[in-house]
Amino acid sequence: METRIKLEDNLMTAVLKLLDGYPGALSALMEMAQNAPEVDPDSSSGVFSPLLSLDMHNIYGADVYVLWSDICRKCAVTALAVLRAAQLGFLPSAVLKDACSRQDRSGRSLINTKELYSSVKERLPNFDSQNLAKF
């Protein structure tokens, strides 16, 4: 599947493309984008990092909300860790996509956020230097 975000997009147009008509995902996207530069200073994409990651894994609309709310308990830092874990190969893309598509909260059992966070911290010592993640 082709990604939606293009080089010419700005933050607003990128967010709109990921919302997929689901306004509940707006706060999740904005919190992840806002926190990304401080939480993950090693990322070269800054505020766009989580947006590009979600797009790469074809996670849009309600699935974004499920990731943020159900799987990561509305913690942007935890969501950033999960997305970074997928990028680093600690979490298969198919598992992430499957977990995010489950609106009955059963996706929570597919993703061990605490373990993934630890793996990311071990690989990237600058990640979440203030230890703000919640599990």
How would you concisely characterize the structure shown here?
The chain has 135 residues and is mostly helical. It contains 7 helices and no strands. It has one domain (11-123).
Any overview of this molecule?
By secondary structure, this protein is mainly α. It has one domain. It has seven helices and no strands. Helix 5 packs across helix 7. The longest helix is centred in the first third of the chain and has 14 residues. The model has no long low-confidence stretch (mean pLDDT 96).
Annotation field: number of helices: 7
Q: Please state the average pLDDT score.
A: 96
When the domains are counted, the total is 1
Distance between the termini: 32 Å
Radius of gyration over C-alpha positions, nearest whole angstrom: 13 Å
Which class of secondary structure composition applies to the elements? mainly alpha
- The helix/strand series, from N terminus to C terminus, equals HHHHHHH
What profile does the largest beta sheet have? none
Strand percent estimate: under 5%
Helix content: 40-55%
Shape field: globular
Low-confidence stretches: none
The quaternary organization reads as single chain
Draw up the topology in text:
Elements: H1 11-19, H2 26-39, H3 49-56, H4 62-71, H5 76-87, H6 93-100, H7 113-123
Helix pairs in contact: 2-5, 5-7
Keywords:
53% helix; mainly alpha; 135 residues; globular; single chain
